[in-house]
Design a protein that fits this description.
By secondary structure, the chain is of the alpha/beta class. The chain contains twelve helices and eight strands. The chain has one domain (8-297): TIM Barrel. A six-stranded parallel beta sheet has the order 2-3-4-5-6-7. The protein has a two-stranded parallel sheet with strand order 1-8. It is globular. The termini are far apart. The relative contact order is 0.16. Bound molecules: 3-hydroxy-3-methylglutaryl-coenzyme A and magnesium ion. Magnesium ion binds next to loops.
Length: 299
Amino acid sequence: MPLPKKVRIVEVGPRDGLQNEPQPISAAVKIELIERLADAGIRYIEAGSFVNPQWVPQMAGSDEVFRGIVPRPGVSYAALTPNLKGFERALAAGANEVAIFAAASETFSQKNINCSIDASLDRFAPVMAAASAASLPVRGYISCVAGCPYEGAVSADKVRQVAERLLQMGCYEISLGDTIGVGTPADIRRVIEAATQSVPIEQLAVHLHDTYGQALANIYASLEMGVAVVDSAIAGLGGCPYAKGASGNVATEDLVYMLNGLGIEHGVDLDKLLAAGRYITEQLGRESGSKVARALAQP
Ligand code: HMG
Ligand code: MG
């Protein structure tokens, strides 16, 4: 299949990138990052999550972050919402899109959201109803599509089953998460092949953590199969608090560099993106996880 002409980038840095940070990060810094990402041309920003603040303290201030954003037309400011309480908080704070998150592994589901996969889908039903009443689009995530930190191998058919349920519930898009970044292109192809038995390829996205350095290769394999929505995190920040040792998503700068080279449209200005990456890494006092950012920073 020819590569897509255009890719939609879903920037998850302010949520996935920062949720695992032990040091306090003020709402003002998060808001500044979000504004810089929007300035760079990103049109979808996952800006925070409304989960139990005792479970993920870094996201406790998401209300303040959403309230502080000056919304721009055409930009989605999305929030993760695990249950109705989370959805109500997200709606009140001004999120214009939400995401529900399930897993393809029972143990990960228990550790991450404290319930079985089936129970999580039941909890999402009222979120879907409330989102529909408020006319908010809902994205669905599936974690552990290529492996689980607790169970090891995960069946591609299980991924397909969860994807089918999320689609039937009304998610407009399903993001396939390699939470611990263990998959190789062969695994990702197998998972996408299975998922497309139940979900049209246009409604699939990939969310690839780069722990084993496979993310760009896996994205290329996904593009070859027709996937045209890719999640990424500025400066490669992040991980999941319930997947120990998992590193961040593919860096948005690296993704944009690769798409530029492939002549695939994405609407993002690499220089402005690099500046946004420098801003947040300076705030965190840390080197960028983006190889492109590091290469271009050489004198
Ligand atoms: P629970 O303990 O089963 O929930 O947690 P509960 O309904 O029994 O409530 C317990 C207490 O939590 C109550 O407070 C609730 O009010 C409160 P109390 O009455 O005891 O004082 N509570 C909440 N407070 C604020 N906002 C809420 C909320 N819900 C309940 N929304 C829950 C269930 C899902 C809430 C919990 O397990 C949780 O917060 N987990 C955090 C999960 C998380 O954020 N994980 C990281 C994001 S997922 C990820 O990174 C993967 C992804 O990137 C894709 C990939 O890479 O694979 C998306
Ligand atoms: Mg993730």
